[in-house]
């Protein structure tokens, strides 16, 4: 299938880009762990489990397939603040992600521009952006659903459900 032309970098640019990829890899790893812990926390709430995230990190460090030394840092973060809402709220991790963010975005953007799939980097960045967003673009999805199936949508400035007459004068009616 056709796609963008392949890029060739000189030695210095290649070294710089490799450093950026390293930052993107680290940021994606942290966010992936954070997402996993957020899922565990959500399941704990749904099923009434009492989970000690620091203890989970210690158990995994001691004998599961993950066993990464990185789990020690995660345990320390949750031991410092057992009510941490997300690993990304830990000041150390937040600072590191903040420092890596520009390179991470550059790597994802460059990959997209050259047609190189980076699902791990891209998905982790999208998750990070969703967490930090005050308001998400759900309105676009609602609008599409209303257009294709008259499923209605909600507005931020008025109460209730609404439907747009897409095939006519595009006036809005209560749903």
Overview of the structural elements:
- By secondary structure, this protein is mainly alpha-helical.
- It folds into 2 domains: 11-132, Orthogonal Bundle (N-(1-d-carboxylethyl)-l-norvaline Dehydrogenase, domain 2), CATH 1.10.1040.10; 138-174, 6-Phosphogluconate Dehydrogenase, domain 3 (Single alpha-helices involved in coiled-coils or other helix-helix interfaces), CATH 1.20.5.320.
- Helices cover 62% and strands 5% of the residues.
- The protein has helices at residues 11-47, 53-63, 70-80, 91-113, 119-132, 138-149; strands at 153-154, 161-164, 172-174.
- It has a 3-stranded antiparallel sheet.
- The model has no long low-confidence stretch (mean pLDDT 92).
Please write out the topology:
Blueprint: H1 11-47, H2 53-63, H3 70-80, H4 91-113, H5 119-132, H6 138-149, E1 153-154, E2 161-164, E3 172-174
Antiparallel strand pairs: 1-2, 2-3
Helix pairs in contact: 1-4, 1-5, 2-3
Write a concise keyword list for the protein shown above.
flat; mainly alpha; N-(1-d-carboxylethyl)-l-norvaline Dehydrogenase, domain 2; 6 helices; 3 strands; 175 residues; 2 domains
Query: Regions with pLDDT < 50 over 5+ consecutive residues?
Result: none
CATH class of the largest domain: Mainly Alpha
Main sheet summary: 3 strands, antiparallel
How confident overall, as mean pLDDT? Answer: 92
According to DSSP, the number of beta strands is: 3
How many helices? The count is: 6
- What fraction of the residues are assigned to beta strands by DSSP? 5-15%
State the order of secondary-structure elements, H for helix, E for strand: HHHHHHEEE
Stated plainly, the CATH topology of the largest domain is called N-(1-d-carboxylethyl)-l-norvaline Dehydrogenase, domain 2
Main sheet: strand order: 1-2-3
The whole-angstrom Rg is 22 Å
CATH superfamily of the largest domain: N-(1-d-carboxylethyl)-l-norvaline Dehydrogenase, domain 2
Q: How much helical structure, as a percent, in the residues?
A: 55-70%
The CATH architecture assignment of the largest domain turns out to be Orthogonal Bundle
The N- to C-terminal Cα distance equals 44 Å
Structural class: mainly alpha
Oligomer: single chain
